[in-house]
Protein: Isomerase
Organism: Kitasatospora setae
Amino acid sequence: MPLITVDYTDRLAGTFDRRGFGLALNRLAVKLLDAKPAGCKTRFRRTEEAVVGADTETFALVAVKVEIFPGRSAEAKAALGEAVLAALPGYLGGEAGPVQATVQVEEFDHRAYRSAVLGG
């Protein structure tokens, strides 16, 4: 575990190295949250449009949500958020323009979570 979701705006679709960023996120979770490598799951969702702020400047948006089991310290969660924001620019590509980026680390009820490898 963790379950990581990365929402990103359509404008980044052609330049965002999603696979590279996903692998980096998984490595950060292993390093900073003591997660098991095989338990790290990162998915990407492309969003057609996002509105940031109230002015006319157009930003791309990357919103990272990290869902984890309870028990990590506030410091570990904050360190993960900072590390994700520091790593992100290296995967956006030079044509990204201004990008708003957010990271949210949340705990969820581990008693209600199930995971399995299906098929073969």
Notes: The domain at 3-112 is CATH 3.30.429.10 (Macrophage Migration Inhibitory Factor). The CA atoms of residues 35 and 96 lie 31 Å apart.
